[in-house]
Structure formats: C-alpha cells, structure tokens
Amino acid sequence: MDQPRAAQAVLDYVHAVRTRWTDPVAPPGFEPDWADRPAPHTYHPRTERLPLPLHTARATPRQGGYDVPLLGSFLQLSAGVLSRRWEIDKSPDRARTESVTGARWGRGTPSGGGAYPVELYLAAGPSAPVPSGIHHYASGLHALEQVAAGDPVPQVRAALRTPGGDQDGDPEGGFLLCVLRFWKSAYKYNNFAYHLMLHDLGAFLGTWDLLCRQHGTDADPRLAFDDASLSRLVGQDPRDGGVLAVLPLPWADQGALPPHGPAAPSRDPGPDPGLARPVRVAPYGRSRRTREFPMVSAVHRATSTTEGGGPRSLAEPQPAATEAALPLPAPATAA
Predict the structure, then answer these.
(1) Which domain of life is it from (predicted)?
(2) Quick one: residue 169, left, alpha or beta (phi over 0 = left, psi -120 to 50 = alpha)?
(3) In CATH, what number is assigned to the domain containing residue 287?
(4) Does the global pTM surpass 0.85?
(5) Fewer CB within 10 Å: C terminus or N terminus of the chain?
C-alpha cells in the first residue's frame, strides 16, 4: 500500500470511530454470533507443555535478567487467570429475580469486553532456560507450549533492524512477541475492534512496565520492526492479526537460579538446530466460523512497517483541486 492510500486508510478509520454514534461503524446487518464466540484463553492441542511456576514474593530478578520463576510471575500477573467472575442474569419478567448463568475467568490486565485479543509467544534462543524454539503462552493453563523448534532469535533480531527500530542492546536469549488476533474482539465489536485491541495492547504493555519497575528491570518495548517477517514466524495471516510489539527478554545466568526454582529443561532443539521453523498451526479458539473485516485489515496494513523499511510517515493527504484557483484582485487605488 503506497503512502497516500495508507494515510487515507488511517484517516478513514479515525473518522469512522469518531462518528460511530451517528454513522455506525459496523457492517450493515451485523449481529454477533454469541453461540460461536471465540475462547478468551486459547491453547495448542497436542503440544509439549512446560508448566510455569505461580507468582510468589520470591520471584525476583537474578543476575543478568529473567529466569523461569520471574517469567512465570510476570506472565501470570499480566496475562494469566487471576479472578473468577460470575455471570449474573437479571430476569426481565420477574422482579428481584436473578440467576447465575455461569462464570468467566479473568486476567489481571483489563480488556475491552474481556476478549483478551493479545496473545503472547516466547521466542527462546539456546541460552534460554527453556527449549529453543517458539512457545505459546497458554494463559488458561499457565504453561508454555512449544509450537516450533529451532532458534528464532536471529530472525527476530533481523526484523528489529529497521530504520525505525532500536536494536541497540537486543538480547541474545529471547523475546516476547505480542500478537493480536482480530477475531477475538471483532466477533463482537466488528470494525470498532481495532481501536479496542490497541487499548488492550497498551494496557498489557503498561502492566508489564509496572512489573518491571517493581522488580528493578526495564520493559523496553519495541514497536518498529518488519511486521511481515514476524507475522510469518508466528504463523499469523496479516488479514487476521499480527505482531504489534516485541519485549526483549535478557536471561539470567543459569547458575544463579534459586534452589526453589524448577530445573532447567533440556535445551536440545530437536533434529533441526538451525533457525526456527514458522508456526504452522493456530491455537484452538473454539469458533467454527470467522470472518474478515476489511476496514480492520486495511488500517492494520496501512500502519505496518514495510519489509526492509521503517515505519511510514503518514502525512495527511491534501484534497484534490476541483476548481481552478482564481487570482486575487488588485489592491484598490485612490481616485
């Protein structure tokens, strides 16, 4: 998408969001299919899982950065299940009659509608205390699921080397990739979902930053990178979502792991010790049918970093001239 079209796509979306009260942003006839809504907590069936330790006060930074207990603590407090929320239905036909229809498991970071469209993938290199490869954080299980083998760190570091990216001090050990899945929010909010999902991402990054400050570390999120490369790495179709932020994860010296921490698993990446293969299977999300929302896809494509280049500078397009400009009248002179 060239720069004028990208700028126009962004302006069209901003205008649609601002005027949604008088001009609905939803497609004509749109109604959420509540019976086929996606699961807020997804997982990959038939994968090797590494259960993570729950948060404890002893989860403190070790020499050099993160270890498994600290990573487990941060993931649980930011994106894991922390609360059970009752779903109470007030009967419209009988006064003062209420019934509990079910419950939902919520995370610590707030989310519009409790949809949780931000999903997390750990890109772990050979120096990580988990097997090399790409791991999906199954928030409902509080576990890492290995969905690809190999070393993905060189590919992530290469994606960060854009004119708009800041690759100084990028760790060799790993990164946390923040992925948005549009359908998890769009099934309910349609085209308005992209606006809400960016709030969701910002809330998660804010929570991660607070945790880092509390533990004396730096979140240092990266927002400029080769979007297409990282989307391919996690197996994400750009029409359905993408990587929106990258968090560096420098690993602690493995000799500094506390005695109460779990033993480090084998780092053998399997038969292919080279670069990580892309993720080929999406997590189970429960919905039988999904759909694309062109306005969401367009604004996401317009704001993505192009391969081999930095973020676009979206200058506001000038309106096309429809009439010839008339010359100004000559100044009046005294008679």
Answers:
(1) Bacteria
(2) left
(3) 3.40.109.10
(4) no
(5) C
